[in-house]
Design a protein that fits this description.
The complex is a heterodimer of chains A (236) and B (261). Chain A is α/β, with parallel strands linked by helices and 236 residues long. Chain A has helices at residues 45-52, 86-92, 96-99, 104-109, 125-138, 155-171, 183-189, 218-231, and strands at 2-12, 18-22, 25-29, 34-38, 60-65, 71-74, 143-147, 175-180, 192-196, 203-208. Chain A is built from eight helices and ten strands. Chain A is globular, with a radius of gyration of 18 Å. The A-B interface holds A 53-55, 70-73, 75, 77, 79, 81-84, 92-93, 119, 121-122, 135, 139 and B 156-157, 159-160, 162-166, 170, 174-175, 178, 256-258.
């Protein structure tokens, strides 16, 4: 379970003026639930993820993570170690029990087979992103945070990776919070969509998607998207 | 890779050939100049070689080379360890850097000779003072290089390591050290070149062994052939360190960079 109750978060700019990035933002993600965090560009989505990850502790309010297993993150940039191969990058974050395991099925599903011994500098951006996803999945996390993981990938690949994400999520109980600005992607994947206002980001609404994931064919997703837009005209 | 290999071998052979030709030309020039001048103060390559063989046979050459090499190694390890620790500390803390920066600049500009003389006066004419004095001369250089390195650490990768809860050891070995490697290599390269020259001064002033001591001894006899014999053989040792240790290590460390050939 992830409980976020942030009251405010500000940054001090280089010339000393404070900039409020987040206002009142409260939501929770139940254990094993898939939640998407959606809002306009610059509304503080990534900042929220950073607070949850403990990378920034200077904020008002509190965030509670009550999960037993490890946390994994997929950042906007792949953040792979350039001096380690794809395979080394992935095994590096695994505990000893998993580090020697067979990852070929995972590589196969992410279409990374044959690229295990390449260095990240030799990969395209899309491949590097997939390696970063593989790293997060291989850890078998109980809390998985993703920051726009499919942006800048071509749509067929993004679609395949979404399917894969759902497979990984279904295979083991994982609590997922995914940041995206793509509403369609959010209603396709999520149990709940947390909508944020423009900066300073506050909670606009929490929208439940009740249609079972297996029934979300393109037409249904479009209908869900239209429902969501009708309910919250402000999000456009 | 395999298609590149024959050309790589050819390139290595060609550069080895050029190196050999260049050295032979220098030797020939020396020989001609020495026979034209014909003075004891400017001996021919043959005379230098004779001294080299004489002292090699008696074992004296290897004893003094060994002593100097030992001092170079000890001072180098000491300077790299302390200098890296100081440099990384300064690179990570802006406040510490602001406070200690004048100290670094001060020590950077103290002449090596002064450090050596003071070390001998304060700590006596002993091995620890000699090696310590050389290390102190080199520490500020290492510190400013590694300070730059610590400043260039990618915060994105540090955050990744934190999120994935990498152990301190894994963090150091896989995240931090590879980023510092180019700076460590730069400090090593400039360090070894500088340190062995300072070691000769330390030996000249207060030790009774080593290449510096021998040069001092033969200076009193104005025996240029012996001075050159010792100098050239130690240059050869340092060249071997460069070719057999430093360059292969750097090649291995650069392997991951695209287009590293």
């Amino acid at each position: 379970m992830l409980e976020v109750s942030v009251t405010s978060k500000s940054f001090i700019s280089a010339d000393g003026t404070p900039l409020q990035a987040l206002g009142d933002l409260r939501f929770s993600v139940g254990t094993g639930r898939f939640t998407c965090l959606v809002g306009p560009s610059g509304c503080g989505k990534t900042t929220t993820l950073r607070l949850i990850l403990g990378l920034d502790t200077d904020y008002g309010g509190q965030i509670r993570v009550s999960e037993n297993g490890p946390t994994a993150a997929v950042f906007q940039e792949p953040r792979l170690l350039p001096w380690r191969t794809v395979d080394q990058n992935i095994r590096l974050v695994l505990p000893d029990a998993l580090a020697g395991g067979d990852l070929s099925a995972l590589y196969q599903s992410l279409e990374l087979t044959g690229l295990e011994n390449f260095y990240p500098g030799e990969l395209s951006v899309g491949l590097a992103r997939r390696a970063a996803l593989a790293r997060a999945f291989a850890l078998e996390p109980s809390l998985l945070l993703l920051d726009e993981p499919f942006v800048s990938l071509d749509e067929p690949l993004a679609a395949r990776l979404r399917t894969l994400l759902i497979e990984v999520w279904s295979a083991q109980p994982t609590t997922v919070l995914m940041v995206t600005h793509n509403l369609r992607e959010a209603v396709e994947l999520a149990d709940e969509v947390v909508l944020m206002t423009p900066r300073p980001g506050t909670l606009l609404a929490i929208h439940r998607v009740d249609v079972p994931r297996t029934d979300r064919d393109p037409a249904t997703v479009l209908a869900l998207l239209n429902d969501l837009r009708a309910a919250y005209p402000k999000i456009g | 890779m395999s298609t590149k290999r024959p050309t790589a071998v050819k390139a290595t052979l060609r550069s080895a050939g050029t190196l050999l030709a260049s050295l032979m030309a220098l030797l020939a020039l020396w020989f001609v100049a020495a026979s034209l001048i014909g003075s004891r103060a400017f001996p021919s390559p043959g005379e230098v070689l004779a001294v080299l063989i004489r002292d090699a046979v008696s074992g004296e050459l290897f004893f003094h080379l060994g002593m100097t090499l030992m001092r170079v190694a000890a001072a180098f390890v000491l300077a790299m360890a302390i200098g890296s620790a100081i440099g990384i500390g300064l690179g990570r803390s802006r406040r510490a850097d602001r406070f200690f920066d004048p100290w670094v600049i001060l020590f950077l500009n103290v002449p090596a000779l002064v450090t050596i003389v003071l070390a001998y006066i304060w700590f006596g004419l002993n091995e620890a003072a000699a090696i310590g004095a050389v290390a102190v001369n080199k520490i500020p250089n290492v510190a400013i290089t590694l300070r730059e390195g610590a400043r260039s650490i990618d915060p994105g990768l540090t955050e990744m390591a934190k999120v994935f809860r990498l152990s301190r050891w894994k963090m150091l070995r896989h995240v931090v050290l590879p980023q510092l490697q180019p700076f460590l290599a730069a400090a090593t390269r400039s360090g070894i070149a500088l340190i062995w020259k300072i070691v000769l001064v330390v030996e000249l002033l207060g030790r009774s062994s080593g290449v510096g001591f021998q040069i001092h001894l033969y200076f009193q006899y104005f025996d240029v052939a012996a001075i050159l014999a010792y100098t050239l053989s130690f240059v050869a040792v340092m060249l071997a360190v460069e070719l057999l240790v430093l360059q292969p290590y750097e090649r291995a460390a650069r392997r991951w960079r695209p287009g590293n050939a």
